[in-house]
Amino acid sequence: MRTKLLVTALVLASAAVGRADDGLTKGTPDLKSVTALAFGPKGLLLAGDPTGGAIFAFDTGDTKPTGDKPLNVEKIDAKIAAALGVTDKEVKITDVKVNPASGNVYISATRGTGAGDPALLKVARDGTVSAVALKDLAFSKVAIPNANDKQRTESITSIAFVNGKVIVAGLSNEEFASTLRVIPFPFKDADKGAGIKIFHGAHGKLETNAPIRTFVTYKIGEDDNILAAYTCTPLVKIPVSDLKAGAKVNGTTIAELGNRNRPLDMIVYTKDGKDYILMANSARGVMKVPTEGVDKAEAITARPAGETAGLKYESIKELANVMQLDKLDDGHALLLVKNGNLHDLKTVPLP
Predict the structure, then answer these.
(1) How does DSSP assign 100-163, residue by residue?
(2) What are the tens digits of pLDDT across the range 28-87?
């Protein structure tokens, strides 16, 4: 009995302080907005708050695998609205990510009219939607210095967790406004980040103010790299080792995937022993880009003769109206697909 009481006391004490080894403590986060999401280890959810100029880390406590059942939910906006106590017209989904520890899905959204209030939702593999309570939650926070004032929503556009570090893309107030920051976790402080310069083939010029819209990390040889996609749609390779505080980094444009287009989301996956990028786009559908040869791809330094150049891609025509995507497991992707004024969650085989 004494042992049981001691164990209970230890569990309660642990819950009271949160995950102290990760710098997380229980409390109520002052989250002002929520856009880009990413997952770290052990169910750690990262959320970008561009309005507040900060990155939050939350302990979801969601680490038990839930099986490999496909997840398909029609009109997910309506289910989110019901969980939040609003109408579906007052819900705007901003990101969708799969928790690799459990297989459950997390969605960031705004509720209400105008800018709305931030909300986080959990979608279980049986399709049940529940709101994540943003109080009495184990969390930590790091401020993003010099977040862009004129384009605040672009100050955090995409996030990833790699080798104990959080990589954040967005705009700053620096001369090279396009910025990548590498922030060690557990959080202490964030530095000013590295300014990124790229050659934008469709525009025929060097650019330092274009925000990275979405990115993935990809190991080339022994080195971690960022593969970043921009509006109109250059794909750029950036070594993570170059991302030092205050550095001005020249990214290597390895593909031009077509103008008049905005990349929405991207993942890397392996099929039949080969690696691919799967990218959702606003105007050019879903693209499958082989990564073979990415290490030797020649830099694009002049306006291409046609709409595309560099790495080739295949259009996956059967995947239409995809707004967000993530890898559900090694063989499947989870898609957020536009359905009229609402959206569906769909599980599909990786192409």
Answers:
(1) TTT--EEEEEEESSTT-EEEEEEE-TTS-EEEPP-SSEEEEEEE-TTB-STTGGGS--EEEEET
(2) 999 999 999 999 999 999 999 999 999 999 999 999 999 999 999 999 999 999 999 999
How many Cβ atoms are within 10 Å of 336's Cβ, its own excluded?
A: 26
C-alpha 274 chain-centroid distance: 23
pTM for the model stands at 0.93
Structure tokens at 247: 């550095």
Burial class for 43, CB neighbours closer than 10 Å (0-12, 13-18, 19+): buried
Contact residues for 40 (Cβ-Cβ < 8 A; gap 6+): 46, 57, 161, 166, 185
User: Which amino acid is present at 114?
Assistant: G
* Nearest by Cα to 93 from 72, 71, 78, 73: 78
| Long-range pairs, 31-35, Cβ under 8 A, ≥24 | 31/56, 31/118, 31/134, 32/118, 33/110, 33/115, 33/118, 33/153, 34/94, 34/95, 34/108, 34/109, 34/110, 34/118, 34/119, 34/120, 35/94, 35/95, 35/108, 35/153, 35/156, 35/157
**Whole-angstrom distance, CA of residue 341 vs CA of residue 35:** 20
Distance CA 152, CA 175 (A): 16
Residue position matching structure tokens 């004024």: 341
